[in-house]
Amino acid sequence: MKAPAWKLGCLILASAGLAFLSTGCKKVEPLKLACNASAPSIYPGDAETVTATASAVSTKKKWDVIYNWSGPSVTGNGTTATVATGSLDPGNYTVKAEAKEGKKGKEGLKPETNAACQSDFTVKPFDPPTLSCSASPTVLKPGDSATITATGLSPQNRPLTYSFSSSGGSVSGSGSTATLSTTNAPAGGITVTCSVSDDKSHGASATTSVQVQAPPPPPPPKTQALCTVSFDRDAKRPTRVDNEAKACLDDVALNAQQKADATIVVVGNSAPPPEKKHKNRHAHELTAADLAANLAAQRAVNTKDYLVTDKGIDASRILVKSGTSGQNEVGDYLVPAGANFDGDVPGTTGVDETAVKAQPRNPVVKHHHHKAAASAQ
After folding, report:
1. What is the pLDDT of residue 272?
2. The CATH fold of domain 224-350
3. DSSP one-letter code for 126
4. Which residue ranges make up each domain of the chain?
């Protein structure tokens, strides 16, 4: 008959077909083995070790225990194995260990000298990054720029790459910052999208917005002072537009022709005459101030007449006013469409052109009277 599965050689006696056990025999426990992973779940690249712990190991001299390991990317060394997790895809994995005891070179040959165990662990996929996006400033004048800042976070500290796009203007940059230019962008809101991705193709995006203000309205056009015509040269005809004035008024006419929507304003002025009374043809007495006002108005009307008659400017485009410069002159002004002459040149008064009529420029013809001389015969 076979010997029982007892270890360490009890003395067996056989005689006449009967078996006897020596009284010193003891039953010995079989070898046992337990495996334990250092972490039940990890990310690719994290450290992972598996430890095998043997129990009921024989105490016999010259006996030892050897270990064998198996599993994906596993390297065993005695009671400990390491797993190269960087090469593993997310999923569930098993590491196995086997222990054998016995004399060197004969480990595991005897019954109950083998044991095995296994430990499971999970490789988790990397968490995707998170992202926030901000702009500074958020309100811009047309043509101004804003700094865009993207703040990404990878839970497992994976390397991150950033990119930017915008619904208006143009955005450019490197790393986690970019510049939004609003050159040629219309007024209104612009949305900037920040994007981030890690080296495992996981990504995230976030948006921020800026407001481009409407450009301020252009300043209103202003009245432009042109040349001034002097009336000091002809004391006998102090309101006549003389030939010296033609160069100035030709330039006024040219400005009017070049700016068809502009208005011409002629402002007559007069130096104060001596304080004495004058009489007109209706025998009304005039003060010096009245006479000055009449001269100023007449000069302005005569100037307009030259521009209309000689230069062909539409009379409706020329306004006639009198001023208070105290000089014998007419000031000429170009008033663009939308400009406010009275605001730009205060202190003038409109001339009633129904009461003040234009005077001809032609010089007075002098008539010479000769007395007939009788010849004596």
Report:
1. 85
2. 60s Ribosomal Protein L30; Chain: A; (3.30.1330)
3. P
4. 1-27, 31-123, 130-212, 224-350
- Residue 314 in 3-state DSSP? coil
Q: Are 200 and 127 in contact (CB under 8 A)?
A: no
The closest of 228, 231, 269, 267 to 251, measured between CA atoms, is: 228
pTM for the full predicted model: 0.56
| Other beta carbons within 10 Å of 182 | 23
Neighbours of 192 (CB within 10 A): 24
Residue with tokens 């990397």: 126
Q: Which uninterrupted H or E stretch holds 299?
A: helix 288-309
| Residue 216, preceding peptide bond in cis (omega within 30° of 0) | no
- Return the CATH fold of 31-123: Immunoglobulin-like (2.60.40)
Please, which residues have CB within 8 angstroms of residue 254's CB and are 6 or more apart in sequence?
A: none
| 8: pLDDT strictly greater than 90 | no
> What is the dotted CATH code of the domain comprising 130-212?
2.60.40.10
